[in-house]
Structures
1.
Amino acid sequence: MLVLTRKPGEKILIGDDIVVTVLESRGDGIRIGIDAPRGISIQRAEVIKAVAEANLEAAHADVDAEAKLRSQLGLNRPSDSE
């Protein structure tokens, strides 16, 4: 990891077409601006992590989820003899 000290208004270049500008410093945080081509995805890591965790949780349904849903909808499972 490269660690830099920058002042407001100073820029960091990443490759030929990504520019990170320090906009201002506020207390314990800073505001940055990122100029990048439209094809480059820029995401906050904590948002990606939260979405991934929510997706994993949603993918693990209860064992009896189908039976609960059928019961709420008033549907009965067809019997094996039919």
Note: The beta strands are 11-14, 18-26, 29-35.
2.
Amino acid sequence: MNNIALYELAHARTGDKGNHANISLIAYKPEDFALMVDQVTPERVAVHFGARRPSEVRRYLLPNLGAMNFVLDNVLDGGVNDSLNLDMHGKSLSFHLLTLPVQRP
């Protein structure tokens, strides 16, 4: 097994709605999607974002697209308009998820 960063297998897009973040992961190759389903779980994502203290992490699978979507509740310090946190939204959150280590056989 080889430890690699998730960004070697996928790219990400992020959005926000109020105090909630939405991060989509899209596999570069269809054969990597199953590995992502096994290893990029809501529990692991919650731990990876532990400093942001998500109250809940939900995952939605989109197998026909080789993608998954995560909704992280209450991670944006009140939302983009209320937060004093400099750019802890959007691209910075998606890149943080892409640093998650995964094991490639």
Note: The chain has one domain: 2-104.
